[in-house]
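Weekly puzzle thread! Below is a chain. First person to post its structure in token form gets bragging rights.
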Amino acid sequence: MTNWERRIARAQALEQQYRAAAELLAFYRLIAGFQSRILPAPMDAEGPRFVKIPESLRYSIAPLLSLLEDSAPEPLAKTARILRYTQNWGGEIDPGDPAARFIYRVLLQPYAESLAQRHQPIPSTQQDCPYCGEPPVVAVLRPEGEGGKRSLICSLCFTEWDYRRLLCPRCGEEDHHKLPIYTNETFAHVRVEACDTCHTYVKSIDLTRNGHAVPEVDELAALPLDVWAAEHQYTKLQTNLFGL
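Winning reply:
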């Protein structure tokens, strides 16, 4: 099973389990299905910094815009409609436009992941992705000994790298009294790891409690945890593909 097939299958399973996130997960399955058909980056592709849509991805823009017109929420569908009919899309990205940023990342994620997978793992203790420099979208606890080993997953290329458990990935705070954790029995394997110094948080997927979880997908399903964090004045370290 490919990474994309695994993500799609997990999203479908979570739709049945978490009804509040079912609509988002169903839309994600459509997007992930589209991403799975994007050809890998050519062998001579450059990376890891991405400032615009690479030339080899331009063929995917029109089909993606058509998909969004038919299936996306209306604000995003409207933007896709305008872009398709005006042909006003030259590969540049306006970071201030959420819809344009979404389109850019949908196209670039599989491309960036295929590039990252060709490189040897990069030992790192840094806060951002050691391959492409993007912030992490989710943390992971993997079984190790009698406990769990923490790592971070890149929001763009899905590179995973080790990161200390008691260390804020935003400001480096390491006082455990300032690093509260919030859990909810509905999401027994997902928790909010917050920081009272910089007031940011990242969701963490505990694979020691649920080995079937796919971190980048389970993060999407746990929307109520983001609501709790916002109500307590925490800002997400990095939003996911949908800007949430």
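Puzzle host: Confirmed. Bonus trivia for everyone else. The chain has a mean pLDDT of 91.
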